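Chain entry —
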Amino acid sequence: MDFFQQQDIARRNARLLTLLFLVAVLLLVLLTNLAFAAFLWFGQNYNVYTGGRDGLSGFLYYFSWQRFGSIGLAVTATVGLVFVLKWLQLSTGGKVVAEALGGSRILPQTRDRLERLCLNVGDEMALAANMPVPAVYVLNGERGINAFAAGITPADAVIAVTRGTLIHLERRELQGVIAHEFSHILNGDMRLNIRLAAMLKGITFVGDVGHILLRSSSHARSGLSDRRSNKAVTLPVLGVALWLLGWLGGLAAGFIKAAISRQKEFLADACAVQYTRDSTGIGDALKVIGAYLPGTLVHAARAAEMSHIFFGQIEHQLWQVFATHPPLEARIRKIDPSWDGRYIQRKVQHYQAEPSRPGAAEVGVGRAALVTAVLTATTAGDRSQPQSSVADCGPSPEELEAQTAARFALPVAFVEHSHNPLGAQALILALLMGEEDAVRKRQLELVGAMNVQGLEALAHTLAPGVAALGPGQRLPLLELCLPALKSMSLRQYRAFKNALLACIQADRRTELYEWCLFQLLRHYLDPEFLRVTPSRARYRHLGKVRKHLQVLLSVLARESLEDAAGAFALAATELEVSGVELLPPEQCSVSAFSKAVHELASCYPLLKPRVLKAMTRVAGADGKLTTTEREVIYSVAAVMDCPLPPEPDWPLEPEN
């Protein structure tokens, strides 16, 4: 699957969406002017018993171009303001969307078997998609089988599943659903979906104002003595008009949303087959949904405005004029052309909804609730989750950790420590420990200055084992630590980030490996705690970033220390950009390299794979990749928000 081309298509769809949005706003301005003219005509020139005195000409009298401009400016400003506010809210990261829909974050140290299974499947799909594991949320109050991915970039992306998904799907079916959501992350669909939701809110806000006017007018009529006057009925007329305008705007936005979203679902299903290498997983998940009574329904209060981001239709077709997802049968036949039309029957598991956020279960707790809880505990034991499920829960948490350790060839102890914030911090700090005793002693003192109990001792204990890791093990270890590091507080993260910088500077020099590690952590953790503005596509041609390409490729070529000129020539041929020359060593500093990478992140999606391919040409000029070269390529790809193909597909030169 060409994800770069799909990202470029998503960008073109965003332009189309913007154009249609402007057309919808223009129509909204026109209809609002008509509604306002009708409001004036109805209030001043219309009698309930005799009708209008001047007919149509009287109505047109209240429609003026001067008023058209004023109302148009007011409507446009209102829609624009609501759009900007909604965009600022949703663009802070996928966790905002997940929490707004009632999601609870699954912590890496959870002992719930179903949640551990979900995290393990997320690890597997992240490995297949060649990207770090995003945070995973669960919508505990939802019985329907559904899921979604949200965020602006892969760095702030999250994946959420409903409790019904965890309970009623087997492991391979859950793999298919989560792989489907991973494809939305890599295809660039998430940013388009968030923009669409913000635009939809801007258009339908006019209808919300109309609803408020209707409610206020009902209270006004009940308390006024002149309720029979013509003026008393003008406010509800205006409210109805604005409500209808909002409804029409929502209808137009729904049409746009359906037109863009439906084909994306077919593509995501195909990507799920690619990631899992099994068409029965996603296919059987859809067949289970077809026979499951709640289907993919989601009842969260804000689910309707985000309906296009879900795995399946969240409302019954009777309540939606334009479906945001293709018919279930069509999706199944795309994956399994020989399907016989039979769905997979599963026994419905009844479960008690868990609180969707900490403390939610405490609201309204009184004496009766306390007595009920005691009786339930004494008679039925712990029923916070079902004791058995039709879903294949797989191995125990301990066995899952052993499998993860075997997959990445890491010690089991490292995997266990990566699941809690303290252990994850210690592992990352151990990755930066120097080889010289004096440097290591200074770094441990800096760690101790953080005043985190046990961190210095744990980092000192883990350092020898981390130093013994072989090629290709450091990056997987870092990625395993990311979910636990994201559960820190803002104050803890700032202290941890400052300690990282201090440890890097302890030997008064910055190695390329240290830059890679810090950039990966900063890129994936900053959006969790800070407001980060993602890079925007500004460069359409590689010729505009010639200088930055020279720095990037020169640093990588000189890292090989063998035939830098020959390796650089291979990359220059790949790029087909004139005037690119190997720079002298004094111009190949780490700071210049960092600046070049961040500028290249602003290239258009179809240019980024060419840059990464040129990098692999340089690094693989001798037919092999060193640990540092591999980490540099992964780090640059992360900063550029560009997915990498599987390593066996990298264009390396044959060994001599």
